[in-house]
Specification:
It is built from 2 helices and 5 strands, in the order ββαβαββ. The chain is α+β, with helices and mostly antiparallel strands and 106 residues long. The chain has one domain: Gcn5-related N-acetyltransferase (GNAT) (Aminopeptidase, 3-Layer(aba) Sandwich). A 5-stranded mixed β-sheet has the order 1-2-3-5-4, covered by helices on one side. A hairpin with a 2-residue loop joins strand 4 and strand 5.
Length: 106
């Protein structure tokens, strides 16, 4: 925005988890908006671009993992049509963390 990096998104093709139900899934691995641009439509613009790219690539599902203690992100994903389909536990150092697995049909 105005010449500044406002955010970025990363899709990973050929990635899935056991709870994801799809023939041709794509993972939304990262979706970040710079703190100073929160609430200015950056996240939605990136999300729309990810949906378009996934559809263009012939994918049937886009999925992601979101930290269980990030309600703002969860609401954003739900607003965009994602629904929770499972959970994934991972270690952050020696601390177990849980991501909620969410998916949306394309």
């Amino acid at each position: 925005m105005n010449g500044e990096l406002a955010g970025y998104a990363k899709l990973i093709f050929e990635s899935t988890e056991p709870d994801i139900i799809a023939e041709w899934p794509v993972e939304l691995s990262r979706l970040y908006s710079h703190q100073k641009f929160l609430g200015r439509g950056v996240g939605q613009a990136l999300m729309d671009a990810c949906f378009a790219r996934a559809k263009e690539a012939g994918r049937d599902v886009i999925w992601l993992g979101v930290w269980e203690y990030n309600p703002r992100a969860q609401r954003f994903y739900e607003k965009n049509g994602f629904r929770q389909v499972g959970k994934h536990t991972f270690l952050l150092g020696s601390d177990p963390q849980t991501d909620l697995l969410m998916q949306k049909n394309i």
